[in-house]
Design brief:
Length: about 625
């Protein structure tokens, strides 16, 4: 159903009708913020039919961006082309494709999505003597801290105390060396995208003015999740205190402090822009029983937005809140299973089990499988799992970046997994040098000696090496892989292949819709890298998620387990003190407000042999005394 402006409540409508100047929309769980944001953008488009400016909408997930784009397309039709809805990283990628040459980047840069590849890069630099690095893993953590806090090498001394000059200089050398190596190899990781975008906009005023002229209105969803690096990019895109900046946020849902999110960000926003504030306390998702305990819980967090209104349930469905305790975690799991078993199989997709840590979910999944329940731990996969799809993917990547040894290594590894015969990157490189051909041609020459890979190699030689017709190459690969994946007994040889293929086709469709059917290979690969590869789950599957992966979802039946001290809140949060406990409280607030009908809470007196007390959050919700 398409939501129209007439369907909004008074607060929502006031926000959707907003026009000029900065606005902060404080939107609680289930408050219809996505509808407000999309209708606000649609209004801007509808009310400026003869204008050429575009609207920039920044979200935190590709899924959210695509959903909003679809809604706006329904509302505005062809005019939706005036809207750029994307993640922060996708925006940075697009900008660096156009203007990265000022920083030494070529438009066809590769995107590194795996930390193992980043560690390997630092390891190579250490082994070659290029940098003095004792521990690449520790160095990478420090680099990521600089990324998330928007700290440049020149700004680093401000973050070291007197007497730590040598440590500071050492980290400066590592950071500068790492960044230089990325540019030299024409690669970027997620942190460097933000770093170089900030550098580009700050050092090239002409480009910054062009961006501001094109994007006269900027909308940001889930602003509370921004880290300082993202905020600094935003400040360069919309620098004036009177900028048309429309921000949707909820300070009660700041749960990504490990990734640089901070309650201070909303205070910075207020200081820098002095925005008008509209609150959306109405909750259309959660029943009154859930909203009531959520209000009680979050009220224990000091420092929330001033005059923050309590949530008010608008859900007319009668809900339930149940709390149970058990002697140990095994009993807790057994009871959880007995709660879910009566639910018909084709309705178990309505069930979400939330735990604070993955450790609990692993044990729950194993127990459910033993009892014959289908259950999956949902995570945000950034890479493909099937060797078949990896083989095709890395062939495309090597076609795009012919000189990348790391990509050639991955291509050869995927070929070895498919063929069960070792394909050596060293042999491929040697053949390429001796015969003066590209490494990809040399790879396909090796692959052609295998009966299994021979059709794949033939397609690669013709469609990648000879003509760079990558869409036809992909089509040919899937035709071959479909045959390789099924045995004479109709069993799947590669368990992840079907899901990976579905993801590929879905993401490819979205990319072509955004960038056109003739999108170039390097843009296609960059956007593919930025898109998470979520596994498709069946209707009889119970979803198991941590709080962080469950943010933004809603289910009829939500089961929050492990509500014991040192589990939720975690041991580390308790040790760190009040600031960390506040974030744990927000985690709990997010967890319980995923429920649109029934909420089941549980805790045990013992986990993994250690005695535990009930979580303080149960007292704060008013569900336990003392």
């Amino acid at each position: 159903m398409t939501i129209t402006i007439d369907m909004l409540n008074a607060n929502q409508r006031q926000a959707a009708d907003w026009n000029e100047g900065p606005l902060l929309v404080l939107a609680g769980p289930g408050s219809g913020k996505t509808a407000v944001l999309t209708l606000r953008i649609a209004n801007l488009i509808t009310n400026s039919p003869n204008e050429s400016f575009r609207i920039l909408g920044l979200t935190f997930t590709v899924k959210a961006a695509n959903e909003m784009q679809n809604r706006i397309r329904e509302l505005t039709g062809e005019e939706s082309r005036r809207i750029k809805l994307c993640t922060f990283h996708s925006f940075c990628t697009d900008l660096l494709r156009q203007h990265g040459s000022h920083l030494g980047l070529k438009p066809n840069f590769s995107v590194i999505t795996d930390d193992k590849d980043r560690l390997a890069l630092l390891g190579e630099m250490r082994d070659s003597g290029e940098l003095e690095i004792d521990d690449p893993e520790d160095s990478l953590k420090k680099i990521d801290t600089m990324f998330t806090h928007g700290i440049t090498a020149d700004e680093l001394p401000e973050h070291f105390d007197a007497g730590q000059e040598d440590m500071c200089r050492a980290l400066q050398d590592v950071f500068k060396g790492y960044m230089a190596r990325l540019v030299k190899e024409n690669q970027l990781d997620f942190g460097s995208m933000l770093h170089y975008t900030r550098e580009l906009l700050a050092s090239k005023p002409r480009i910054a003015r062009q961006v501001r002229t094109v994007y006269r209105y900027v909308c940001v969803d889930e602003f509370q999740d921004t880290n300082l690096a993202q905020y600094r990019v935003l400040r360069l895109v919309a620098p004036d205190s009177s900028s048309n900046l429309f921000v949707v946020a909820d300070d009660d849902q700041i749960i990504f402090q490990w990734n640089g999110a901070d309650p201070k960000r909303l205070e910075e926003l207020k200081r820098d822009y002095d925005p008008q504030i509209i609150q959306l306390p109405e909750n259309y998702r959660c029943p009154a029983e859930v909203v009531e305990i959520a209000n009680r819980l979050i009220a224990h967090n000091p420092g929330r937005a001033s005059s923050k209104l309590d949530g008010v349930s608008q859900n007319q469905v009668e809900g339930s809140v149940k709390l149970e305790s058990f002697a140990d975690f095994d009993d807790e799991i057994a009871r959880l299973i007995s709660e879910i078993e009566p639910i018909p199989k084709n309705h178990r997709e309505t069930c979400l089990v939330i735990a604070r840590s993955n450790k609990l979910l692993v044990q729950i999944q194993a127990a459910m499988h033993e009892e014959g329940l289908n259950a999956e731990i949902v995570s945000r996969h950034q890479d493909f799992a099937s060797p078949l799809v990896q083989l095709m993917y890395f062939a495309l990547k090597v076609a795009n970046a012919p000189d990348s040894r790391s990509l050639l290594n991955k291509l050869c590894s995927a070929a070895t997994l498919v063929n069960d015969i070792t394909v050596s990157a060293e042999d491929v490189s040697a053949k390429a040098k001796v015969e003066d051909i590209t490494p990809l041609r040399a790879f396909f020459a090796f692959a052609a000696t295998s009966e299994t890979l021979k059709p794949f190699a033939a397609s690669g030689q013709e469609l990648l090496c000879d003509s760079l017709d990558y869409p036809r190459f992909v089509e040919a690969c899937f035709g071959l892989f479909d045959e390789l994946n099924v045995t004479d007994c109709e069993e799947e040889v590669y368990p992840d292949y079907v899901d990976d293929k579905k993801n590929w086709l879905r993401i490819a469709h979205d990319i072509r819709r955004s960038h056109g059917k003739t999108v170039s290979l390097h843009i296609f690969l960059q956007e593919m890298d930025l898109s998470p590869k979520a596994k498709a789950l069946s209707r009889d599957c119970v979803r198991l998620q941590t709080v962080h992966t469950a943010k933004g979802v809603e289910f009829d039946n939500v089961f929050v387990i492990g509500l014991a001290e040192e589990q939720f809140p975690t041991y580390f949060a308790i040790k760190k003190g009040e600031i960390a406990i506040r974030e744990e409280r927000r985690n709990c607030f997010v967890a319980i407000t995923r429920s649109s009908q029934n909420l089941y809470l549980s805790y045990a007196q013992s986990y993994f042999g250690w005695s535990k007390r009930p979580s303080r959050f149960l007292n704060e919700m008013g569900l336990l005394d003392g």
